[in-house]
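Need residues for this backbone.
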């Protein structure tokens, strides 16, 4: 039975004129990251965009302040205060069909944007409901090249022999795009991982929308997928789809890799060829063509391409033209109501996605916890490690497992679990801000090492991850009477700025009085440290706090901000003249101190600095470590006072521009103050001494990194 008879005339295209002059539109973002919302809404002001509803995402306050329009956390709060005429939905939620139904029943017009996951039957139902409610309902097809799709199709129609057309679309997406690497909520991933065609779904949708008039009726679809390790759990990051159509054939190739993102389409028929490429980062469009082999033919072909290129409506919407989600808002070519061609397009796109999804096997993430609540050999103690996927967390997991403990790694959903699988270590997916996942992780646990913290420096994210996460861990440990909690703090919590040169810092030294001047990391780590100190003084659990220095392992890179920066190749800029003593601790020595703090009765309620014999001046570090790793290293020592003055100028300039400085004098001075950290307390009270000497640590580092120079280094 045809779709046409179910399609009411109420399915219309909303034009720019009707939107701007008649009503404001309201944008409902379901499960988008903050970056996606920012990219999507740039270019719209209050005369067009009435408000944005950002569901399922924790927007930082700094981000909210950038908006010139109202921002709501849920559609319910919007409807309490506003009577919207039109709501544009971008994103996915489990209750999308129910939501659109309720809006249409209330007489609110709806434009449903990418991605399209509703079935044909659901679209029929919503269309009929819109007709009965005297509301407008539109499916807003995403376009591969913004508003240029119609022009591209006109261009393709000029090809002399359409039955021989060949369409090839190549798409490369950078693997660091926010939707692949970010969390939209506590322990919640972007919905792109849950779509029927996984992370490829949105791009496929745009491609299918473009090729439908060119391909005609689909005769066959062949799909192949591969994985090269660019996505979590090694799910497929490369897809190739071939269509055999009644009018022409098409191929879609999508790759997710470390390359910069771009989209390219090639239309060819015999000697005639048209290619359009859009580089997303630069936003530029490149058009090329190949005509007859003679010079005149090439000139004519070039002229035709240039004229067609000038006709392409690549408009700047404030966001990448490749997204196209809101292109209809300013696209005056979309005046006509939906017709049989539009309906045929939806059936084609939806049907093709279903056929592709059936042939895919490695596109969805699995979060099956690997937990054994039974005891290990000889009634071993079970240790829960938060932040286990970090540099220290991984090394500690391996270290304690080797010592006979039953280790349970608490990792986030985008973390790689293969490291723990290879070692036979238990792992549990979750987030320290999600009490539901913590409850399962704590089952059968004796000890806890809390090393999870946000390292991005974002104050709002750190407030949730570092501060609230620590509060949750403290509460669970107290309620479940955990035998020992070891909290991994940082030497950054001390007030260095007020100290004199060559002063010494021990556990009784003053803590930072102005942590906000040191950045989001120090600010939130100090707040978390104070929560731990308050729990210790209130005798709420068996707790030990460790404040390690800059920990270093065999896996670099070894040029941190406290030392300087690496410019290009083997050229390094060193801050100061190299006299500063670096507060280093070899990572295995920190693991040793952590284990002792878990088991030693004297460690209860104590706070320890952890610095070992690896500490040395910058000059010594450069010669003993960096020069042995980078044999051709060249070091440029940048005078402290000159750099301090340049930072001062930067602060003045950015303050004038009403922007936050990249680096403040206070933060720079705190990191470069010539002071010494003491760790006598843990050595005297717990009889701890670093098991790995400074010479052995350096030997391990050089041996591992010689010729490699890859890895991690954290403070």
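Answer:
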């Amino acid at each position: 039975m045809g779709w046409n008879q179910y399609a009411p005339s109420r399915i219309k295209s909303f034009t720019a004129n009707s939107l701007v002059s008649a009503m404001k539109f309201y944008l409902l973002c379901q499960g988008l990251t903050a970056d996606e919302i920012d990219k999507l809404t740039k270019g719209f002001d209050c005369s067009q965009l009435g408000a944005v509803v950002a569901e399922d995402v924790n927007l930082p306050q700094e981000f909210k302040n950038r908006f010139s329009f109202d921002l709501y956390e849920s559609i319910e709060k919007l409807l309490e205060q506003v009577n919207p005429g039109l709501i544009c939905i971008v994103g996915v939620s489990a209750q999308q069909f129910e939501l659109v139904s309720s809006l249409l029943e209330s007489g609110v017009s709806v434009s449903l944007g990418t991605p399209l996951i509703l079935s044909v039957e659901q679209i029929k139902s919503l269309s009929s409901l819109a007709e009965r409610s005297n509301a407008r309902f539109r499916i807003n097809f995403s376009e591969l090249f913004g508003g240029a799709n119609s022009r591209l199709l006109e261009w393709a129609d000029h090809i002399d022999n359409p039955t021989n057309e060949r369409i090839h679309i190549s798409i490369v997406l950078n693997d660091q795009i926010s939707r692949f690497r970010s969390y939209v909520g506590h322990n919640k991933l972007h919905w792109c991982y849950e779509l029927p065609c996984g992370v490829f779904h949105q791009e496929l949708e745009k491609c299918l929308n473009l090729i439908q008039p060119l391909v005609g009726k689909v005769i066959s679809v062949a799909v192949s997928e591969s994985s090269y390790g660019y996505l979590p759990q090694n799910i497929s990051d490369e897809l190739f789809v071939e269509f055999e159509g009644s009018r022409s054939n098409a191929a879609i190739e999508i790759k997710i890799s470390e390359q910069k993102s771009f989209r390219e389409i090639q239309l060819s028929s015999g000697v005639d060829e048209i290619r359009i490429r859009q580089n997303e980062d630069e936003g530029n469009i490149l058009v090329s063509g190949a005509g007859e082999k003679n010079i005149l033919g090439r000139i004519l072909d070039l002229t035709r391409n240039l004229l067609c290129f000038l006709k392409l409506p690549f408009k700047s919407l404030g966001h990448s033209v490749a997204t196209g989600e809101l292109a209809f808002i300013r696209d005056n070519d979309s005046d006509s109501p939906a017709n049989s061609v539009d309906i045929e397009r939806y059936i084609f796109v939806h049907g093709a996605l279903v056929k592709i999804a059936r042939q895919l096997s490695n596109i969805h993430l699995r979060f099956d916890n690997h937990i054994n609540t039974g005891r290990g050999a000889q009634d071993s103690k079970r240790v829960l490690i938060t932040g286990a996927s970090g540099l220290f967390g991984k090394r500690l997991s391996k270290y304690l497992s080797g010592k006979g403990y039953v280790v349970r790694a608490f990792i986030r959903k985008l973390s790689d679990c293969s490291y723990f699988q290879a070692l036979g270590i238990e792992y549990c997916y979750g987030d320290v801000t999600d009490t539901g996942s913590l409850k399962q992780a704590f089952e059968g646990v004796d000890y806890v090492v809390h090393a999870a913290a946000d390292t991005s420096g974002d104050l709002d994210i750190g407030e949730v991850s570092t501060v609230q996460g620590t509060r949750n861990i403290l509460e669970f440990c107290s309620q479940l009477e955990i035998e020992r909690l070891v909290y991994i703090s940082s030497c950054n919590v001390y007030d260095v700025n007020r100290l004199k040169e060559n002063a010494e810092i021990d556990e009784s030294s003053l803590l930072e009085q102005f942590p906000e001047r040191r950045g989001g990391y120090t600010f939130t780590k100090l707040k978390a440290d104070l929560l731990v100190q308050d729990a210790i003084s209130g005798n709420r659990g068996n707790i030990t706090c460790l404040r390690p220095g800059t920990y270093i392992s065999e896996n670099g890179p070894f040029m941190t901000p406290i030392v300087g920066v690496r410019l290009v190749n083997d050229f390094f800029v060193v801050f100061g003249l190299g006299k500063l003593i670096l507060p280093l601790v070899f990572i295995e020595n920190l693991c040793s101190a952590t284990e002792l703090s878990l088991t030693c009765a004297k460690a209860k309620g104590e706070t320890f600095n952890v610095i070992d014999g690896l500490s040395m001046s910058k000059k010594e570090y450069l010669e003993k470590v960096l020069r042995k790793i980078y044999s051709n290293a060249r070091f440029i020592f940048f005078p402290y006072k000159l750099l301090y003055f340049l930072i001062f100028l930067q602060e003045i300039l950015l303050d004038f521009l009403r922007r936050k400085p990249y680096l403040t004098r206070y933060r720079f001075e705190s990191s470069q103050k010539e002071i010494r950290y003491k760790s006598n307390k843990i050595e005297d009270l717990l009889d701890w001494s670093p098991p790995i000497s400074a010479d052995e640590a350096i030997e391990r580092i050089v041996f591992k990194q010689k010729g490699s120079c890859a890895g991690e280094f954290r403070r």
